[in-house]
Structure formats: structure tokens, C-alpha cells
């Protein structure tokens, strides 16, 4: 874990389960604490890009819908409303700590196209140069099946590659990767370090995530695979306590650490 003590640029990915209550409404206390920690880390000289889920989930909550829409149009409509709410909160909260944010809404097409990808990289670099914090989400309002990443775990790994990050931190609602399903087996234990992502790990990773999210541990394994293959260590950890970010950057063992190749 000491390899993270001297990082200069990191990507932090936060999931819907961390940003919202079980009702789908925004978890304001949780978001405020996350913003405070990121602001402090940026003050220390580390550049941070924040990949945030939650647009559809927050939109569902704001609209008062009982369940997440299952059709594309419903998801897109909820995302347009939720994304406004998310960015309003981030902009207001980061401003309280003296930081400016910039919004990036990305689809797979933007990364696959050479010219678009180069423009994205340039925009990221200039945003950092201006001292602003990039906040990234998938462009759910326009994305259709052939141009979506499908989950922000993979998107966070792609962003980490684009900006040549020193580390990727994926915040979720469990403590890390377990050797068994912790919901079913009391003997389940955290796997502290993973040096190779194998098929066996995917088999024990389990299924889908929270009610209002899209991912699960499998998508986090996929993200870790993308990032570590290009030399970016990845940590999957509990986002319920934002101070865990400090602990990771100080070299302490938190969650599951995927070593870079």
C-alpha cells in the first residue's frame, strides 16, 4: 500500500449506493463528507478526478418514482433530472471549500473515436491546469446500447487510463472483495491484496449491486483489470467512511488492493 503515498493524480469513483439513501433520495451528509475529503486532498497538491454515478438514482428519487425505470427512455429522462441535481450539489458543496468543478459527460463512442479521445484528454489536462476538479459521468441522456460503458466502474478505469492516473479508488457499499458471499456466509473474509485477477475471482464476485445502481463486484473486478493492466493500482473499498481515502493515501491497508502490472 505504500506505493500510493506519493501519488500526484488519482481517480475516485463513487457509486449510487454511497450517494443515495435506500429511498433513492440524496444522502446529503455522505456527499458533504466526500466533498470535504476530496477538497482537502486537492489542497495537499494531489489532482483528483471524480467519477460519479447516481444521476438515474437521484432522478428517480427526485421524481418520487418507486422503482428505477427499466426502459431506455425512462432511464434517460430520470438521468436528465438527476444529473442536474447532482451537479448542483457538487458545484455548491465544492465551492464552499474554494474549489471549482467541471462536468464531463462521456459515452463509449467518445473514447473509441481517435479525435474525440484526443479532445477529451486535452480537456482533462486543461481542466487540471486551471485548478478545477473534473466530475465525470456517463452521458445517460443520449447513450444507447452500442455506445454505453454500461457502468461507471469501467468508465472510471477508462478515465484513469486517459489521464494517466497514479491510482484508481472505487468506493462502494461493502468493505472490499470477499473470498465468499458475505451476505450468505459468516466466514467470508476480505481479500486484502490481489496480484492477479483470475476467473475464480469473477466466480466468487457475485451479482448485481444496489436497487438504484447498475454494478456489482463483477464490474469492479473488470475495472480493476482494465486499470492494472496499464500500470494503475486499484483499490475497492467501502465509501461509507470517506476518511478511508486518507487512510489509503497514507499507505494503510483498506479494502482490496489490486496491484498494477
From TrEMBL:
It holds the Pfam family AA_kinase. The keyword Transmembrane helix does not apply. Residues 8-238 form the Aspartate/glutamate/uridylate kinase domain. GO terms for molecular function: ATP binding; glutamate 5-kinase activity. Its EC number is 2.7.2.11. It comes from the Bacteria. It catalyses: L-glutamate + ATP = L-glutamyl 5-phosphate + ADP. GO terms for cellular component: cytosol. Belongs to the glutamate 5-kinase family. Catalyzes the transfer of a phosphate group to glutamate to form L-glutamate 5-phosphate. This is Glutamate 5-kinase.
Amino acid at each position: 500500500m505504500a506505493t500510493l503515498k506519493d501519488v500526484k493524480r488519482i481517480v475516485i469513483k463513487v457509486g449510487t449506493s454511497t450517494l443515495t439513501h435506500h429511498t433513492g433520495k440524496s444522502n446529503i451528509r455522505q456527499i458533504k463528507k466526500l466533498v470535504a475529503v476530496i477538497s482537502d486532498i486537492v489542497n495537499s497538491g494531489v489532482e483528483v478526478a471524480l467519477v460519479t454515478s447516481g444521476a438515474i438514482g437521484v432522478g428517480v428519487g427526485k421524481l418520487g418514482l418507486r422503482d428505477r425505470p427499466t426502459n431506455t427512455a425512462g432511464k434517460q429522462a430520470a438521468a436528465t433530472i438527476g444529473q442536474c441535481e447532482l451537479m448542483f450539489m457538487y458545484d455548491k458543496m465544492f465551492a464552499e471549500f474554494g474549489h471549482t468543478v467541471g462536468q464531463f459527460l462521456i459515452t463509449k463512442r467518445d473514447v473509441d473515436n481517435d479525435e474525440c479521445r484526443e479532445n477529451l484528454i486535452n480537456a482533462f489536462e486543461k481542466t487540471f491546469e486551471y485548478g478545477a476538479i473534473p466530475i465525470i459521468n456517463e452521458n445517460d441522456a443520449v447513450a444507447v446500447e452500442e455506445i454505453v460503458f454500461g457502468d461507471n466502474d469501467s468508465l472510471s478505469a477508462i478515465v484513469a487510463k486517459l489521464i494517466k492516473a497514479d491510482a484508481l479508488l472505487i468506493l462502494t457499499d461493502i468493505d472490499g472483495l470477499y473470498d465468499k458471499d458475505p451476505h450468505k456466509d459468516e466466514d467470508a473474509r476480505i481479500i486484502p491484496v490481489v496480484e492477479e485477477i483470475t476467473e475464480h475471482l469473477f466466480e466468487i464476485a457475485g451479482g448485481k449491486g444496489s436497487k438504484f445502481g447498475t454494478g456489482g463486484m463483477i464490474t469492479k473486478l473488470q475495472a480493476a483489470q482494465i486499470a492494472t493492466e496499464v500500470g494503475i493500482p486499484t483499490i475497492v473499498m467501502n465509501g461509507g467512511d470517506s476518511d478511508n481515502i486518507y487512510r489509503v493515501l497514507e499507505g494503510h491497508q483498506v479494502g482490496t488492493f489490486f496491484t498494477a502490472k
